[in-house]
Amino acid sequence: MVEEDPRRRIPGTDTVLGHPEVRDAAHSLGEPVLQRIIHQAQSRARSRIISPEQVVPEVIAQLEGHRPSSLRPVINATGVVIHTNLGRAPLSPAARQAVVDAAGYVDVEMDLRTGRRSQRGAGARRALLNACGPAEDALIVNNGAAALALAAAALVGTGRVIISRGELVEIGAGFRLPDLIESTGAELMEVGTTNRTHLQDYASALEAVPQDERACILKVHPSNYRIAGFTSTVPTAELAGLAQRHRLPLVVDAGSGVLDPEPALPEEPDLRGALSDGADLVIASGDKLLGGPQAGLLLGSTDTITELKHHPLARAVRTDKLTLAALEATLTGGPPPVTTSLHADPEVLLLRARRVAEAVGVDVVAHDGRVGGGGGAEVPLPGWAVRLPESAAEPLRSHDPPVVTRTSGSWCLLDLRCVPESDDETVLQAVRSVLHDLHAAPSEEQV
Ligand SMILES: *Cc1c(COP(=O)(O)O)cnc(C)c1O
């Protein structure tokens, strides 16, 4: 008797779909993704990698492990608070809830009392104005770069933007603020030198601007570098006086967006201070030291903000409802994770690091955290790290959930500054499992 080809027992797609467990596990998945997962399992059975009986269990396992988005939550054990590659600021519990609430239909542009159209994002605007007193009005756009482009387009057009040579910033991934400004049609007028710029440099430039041309003075905070040594910059208050005498706006790009002076970061310009010093417009990002969602914040005088609101580009850089919800909740809720991590107590960090280190028999070493892409260039945040062999870094990233550490010298350093304490046990389990696997499979030189 000829034996039946086992591949004839591979269940067809409809049969697989008929299993209630498959239906349950697939409830939030689109048809094409579901079909692909089933076809892959069938194909593996046809290639005899799995048996026909394993097709349905494999499909269920795949469905259960499937995430609706390819973005994976990770544990940031780098000690870098605002880590651009890890999505900058993690949202506060209040902001996360606000995002979920705003995900459906929401009264973002409707006055529910009258049923008429209302100002978009009025709540977020109000929260921003409450948090930052001296501003008369505010506008929220997509990100800091969009805010700067809108400011240049609306206030200057094809006129001149006067800026110090010490403030021509590359913000990362090859993006340069001077290029961004020029792309709006404005012409840059660089003044001073890399290390020193004086009020007279700005004054001379202003004399050279033709009477009928629009212009502004732009002061940019160098968020990601420091010029030290023989240096000189012009304070905002002095620039404001000069701008006022020439009846031109002073725009301050503060970068990171601390509302009030931050004692831990004395060089970080605060928005309130810049406005009090006379800036007509202050720009900041929402997802740096403010600890909120990606957004560009524009704060200033009523006239200036009105001009921005009415520029056609304002519509192109309009903020999403999820962002508006998260930003308002960040401003009105408890301290966001960025603030908590920035102010983490080194003694508590030491105790937490020791708990992990002692459980797996490794050392704790002193380790400075960093503010990261968001500001506080070069400012060390004293703390501690669990010191692991360098070879642990890759398997920790491949762990579920991924744990991202810092590699320094020939060590993998695990800093708990940005890890919520409730995740310490998860981190410990990851470290334990990775070290166990490393010991079980010693590398060649160890053999
Ligand atoms: C970060 C930064 C920007 C860009 O802001 P995004 O929100 O990343 O677009 C612009 N200017 C300064 C000074 C910055 O620090």
UniProtKB/TrEMBL annotation:
<dbReference type="GO" id="GO:0005737">
    <property type="term" value="C:cytoplasm"/>
</dbReference>
<feature type="domain" description="L-seryl-tRNA selenium transferase N-terminal">
    <location>
        <begin position="7"/>
        <end position="46"/>
    </location>
</feature>
<keyword id="KW-0648">Protein biosynthesis</keyword>
<dbReference type="InterPro" id="IPR018319">
    <property type="entry name" value="SelA-like"/>
</dbReference>
<keyword id="KW-0711">Selenium</keyword>
<dbReference type="Pfam" id="PF03841">
    <property type="entry name" value="SelA"/>
</dbReference>
<comment type="function">
    <text>Converts seryl-tRNA(Sec) to selenocysteinyl-tRNA(Sec) required for selenoprotein biosynthesis.</text>
</comment>
<dbReference type="InterPro" id="IPR004534">
    <property type="entry name" value="SelA_trans"/>
</dbReference>
<dbReference type="Pfam" id="PF12390">
    <property type="entry name" value="Se-cys_synth_N"/>
</dbReference>
<dbReference type="GO" id="GO:0001514">
    <property type="term" value="P:selenocysteine incorporation"/>
</dbReference>
<dbReference type="GO" id="GO:0004125">
    <property type="term" value="F:L-seryl-tRNA(Sec) selenium transferase activity"/>
</dbReference>
<dbReference type="GO" id="GO:0001717">
    <property type="term" value="P:conversion of seryl-tRNAsec to selenocys-tRNAsec"/>
</dbReference>
<dbReference type="InterPro" id="IPR025862">
    <property type="entry name" value="SelA_trans_N_dom"/>
</dbReference>
<keyword id="KW-0808">Transferase</keyword>
<protein>
    <recommendedName>
        <fullName>L-seryl-tRNA(Sec) selenium transferase</fullName>
        <ecNumber>2.9.1.1</ecNumber>
    </recommendedName>
</protein>
<keyword id="KW-0663">Pyridoxal phosphate</keyword>
<dbReference type="InterPro" id="IPR015424">
    <property type="entry name" value="PyrdxlP-dep_Trfase"/>
</dbReference>
<feature type="modified residue" description="N6-(pyridoxal phosphate)lysine">
    <location>
        <position position="288"/>
    </location>
</feature>
<dbReference type="InterPro" id="IPR015421">
    <property type="entry name" value="PyrdxlP-dep_Trfase_major"/>
</dbReference>
<comment type="pathway">
    <text>Aminoacyl-tRNA biosynthesis; selenocysteinyl-tRNA(Sec) biosynthesis; selenocysteinyl-tRNA(Sec) from L-seryl-tRNA(Sec) (bacterial route): step 1/1.</text>
</comment>
<comment type="similarity">
    <text>Belongs to the SelA family.</text>
</comment>
<keyword id="KW-0963">Cytoplasm</keyword>
